[in-house]
Amino acid sequence: MLFRSLILSWVRFPLHGGPGCATINAMSERLQRSLRGQDLRRVDLSAIRLVGVDLREADLREMDLSGFDFAGSDLRGARLDGAQLRGAILRDCELGGTSLEGADLGAADLRRSDGFGLQAAWARLEEARLDGAEWRRAHLRGATLDRLRGAGVRLDHADMTGATLRECWLPHVVLDDANL
Q1: Which secondary-structure segment (H or E) carries 32?
Q2: Is this model's pTM higher than 0.85 or not?
Q3: Burial 145-171 (b: 16+ CB within 10 A, else e)
Q4: Which entry of 26, 54, 146, 165 is 20 to 30 Å from 138 by CA?
Q5: Contact status, residue 74 vs residue 56, Cβ threshold 8 Å
């Protein structure tokens, strides 16, 4: 996938807990397109726009990514357990096999995301937008799904045991063989 945004020629990545920060001058074409499999937990991503980026299998656990724009990115197999993604834009993202256990996705935009086999037990998705999302076989055990909004959401074979679904607006939702 192409990295579809402007990259500054000088980008600073402060390393939390390390002396000073590392500076990357004129990021390579490869880095601009793919952060696949990288452990990014100690990297300050605030200077980078993550639209359309390959983040497959990246480690973003426990990071504060509130309000980040990941639109069109590939996050399959990424680890986002315990991450703060409140208000994040994950529209049109590939989320298959992504681990979001205990993550806060309140008011996140997840429209048209593909989350086949998504692992989001105990995640908080209050007021998230899911229009057209396909989360087949998603694991949402114990998740807080209150005030979800989304037409045409597919949750076939999803495990939502113990999840809360208060005041949701989900017209035409598909819940075939889902555990509620």
Answers
A1: helix 29-33
A2: no
A3: bbbbbbeebbbebbbbeebeeeeeebe
A4: 54
A5: yes
